[in-house]
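Re: adenosine monophosphate structure - here you go.
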Amino acid sequence: MPMNFETVEVTTDLLIIGGGMGSCGAAVEAAHWGKKHGLKVTLVDKASMPRSGAVGMGLSAINQYLGVAEGLNTVEDYIKYVKHDLMGVARDDLVANIARHVDSSVHLFEKWGLPLWKDENGAYVHEGRWQLMISGESYKVIVAEAAKNAIGDENIYERIFITEPLIENGKCVGAVGFSVRENKFYVFKAKAVMCAMGGTVGVFKPKSTGEGAGRSWYPPFSTGSSAYFTLKAGAEMTCQEVRFVPIRFKDAYGPVGAWFLLFKSRATNALGENYMETRVGELDNWGKYGSVRPIPANLRNYLGLLDIKEGKGPLFMRTEEAIANLAKKYEGEPKAFKKKMKELENEAWEDFLDMTISQALLWASTNVEPEAKSSEIAATEPYFISSHSGSSGAWVSGPEDLSGGTDYFWGYANMTTVPGLFAAGDATGACPHKFSSGTHAEGRIAGKAAMKYILDNNTQVEPNPEVIAKMKETIFQPLALFEEHKNFSTDENVNPNYILPKQFMYRLQKLMDEYVGGVSSNFSFNKASLDKAAELFVFLKEDAEKLAARDLYELLRVWENKHRLWQAEAHLKAVAFREETRWPGYYFRTDFPNLKEEDWLCFVNMTWNPTNNEWSLFKRPILDLFGIE
Ligand code: SFD
Ligand code: AMP
């Protein structure tokens, strides 16, 4: 591997990092303001935009749509739904800001060519109250095309992995990274930076190991870059304890929403019991959140997990029963019945073919006919994602009209506590349930605010060249380390001088799985196991300095793992700090098994201090801005 990496410098006004849903929203909006004021917008993605990020495979539903103009819902309805789902812990202002803009993002998608399902009256077909059905195999291609058209191909850098933020006098002034295809080191200098590099997968040992390794619900290429970037910039973070454990079709992770909401399916245990009914009394233990409807996602999980713990699994999605129920009214008319059954079968397969193709393959290869036989569902390994029902991310400012004058506001919507650094999507915390559409809307909000910030602070701060030189050395050091020591042993995989990224990842995942409540420890832990994790973490971090790479591909894996490590550490610290159990279907503290509203109905926030390498954790109050209980 040659060590002569060319340095490429790019100077811009706004740098958007990531090419996913949030970034595509930001690109469209920022380009509009950029054209008006002569400002340049540049976007950098580690992959190729038309298929990068969580929506790359496509989706079969848009999960946030309010239908305000149609009189379907209000912004307040949505805040209430989100706050209840997260057991009281969410930011009114951020949720409201997204909710009031999300419908217009959905209308843009439709204008750009995304096929939304319509009924015979031309109205959108709803999956549930907030969800719209789409034929979304090419969802990301369509949204990325609009973003590319807005800022121009010449301003888009693909296949560049961003590793570090550039900070000068506490302000974010750019980022550095490397090409995953060429021997090039990139320095992006900017007046403002927007971080939207998605969530984190692979911190916990996945259920899919061996021949299924690499399969996950959220994309395996979401590797914690948002959390790393914002933490390393010195930004305040929030809800790092709030991981997401979805219930999914077992082994290929097919989503369940369409089955529960559109097909009105039940899930039952091996004895045919519906745990949502047999376990309903358990909900009384979780304060007022046990009586809200819909039942919060984590409590729904919890009821199923209780059945599993008692040996009443596996759990099954009763697809055959749901399809039969929907076709029932056509039973007297054979032709209409046949047609309806065909239509339902098509919808069942399309749900996966649009979004989780491997689930359709698994069905096909295991002779599943959903109209004839139930399919197993199960809780997955934990993920870090704030756009679905998790909540971890950076603590960002709200918009002035909603939270001005409160501690939620410090100047520019969606700016982190680091001046010049904005965030959206999985990168921002405490505003969950934004999904693909809300993330796009949040990206637009952040993109617009960032352009305003640039107009108000229109100076290009030059990053320190010595810092950049040092970063370049650090980024490529894993290649040099391998070259230096590769001949020490007869097997490259076994060498006392370095650790390869796959081995490192397995170690991180084992640690988190066993001591911080992964699948094998039944999502449970206590202080003793967290202390053990913290002890092992010290060794793991020491060895992170010895990560080695044989080629550019492995260098990417090295940096993905370094990023994951920070998300893992932030999580470990946050769950140790919160001495209660608030989301029992996501994790359970056996030493503090109850909800403690008086002490813990608050945000757990944290910062990492770049100057002394110290972490601090603290509580922040939850403000009630809309009078929503
Ligand atoms: O059914 C770097 N999501 C769903 N949303 C919906 O609206 N409907 C659904 O049906 C949804 N479901 C679903 C969903 C996701 C997945 C994977 C499945 C099913 C199987 C959620 C949305 O997809 C999600 O909310 C948004 O996409 C989040 O957007 P954003 O922008 O926060 O993240 P991204 O789109 O993953 O993009 C990240 C980008 O960053 C790049 N990147 N670039 C440079 N340097 C680095 N170091 C980088 N690291 C990452 C990525 O390449 C990417 O471009 S259902 O389950 O509910
Ligand atoms: P999922 O497929 O689990 O990602 O869910 C898609 C959407 O449906 C999300 O908005 C979920 O919150 C919602 N959802 C899924 N299952 C249920 C359920 N049983 N009750 C209410 N909402 C659900």
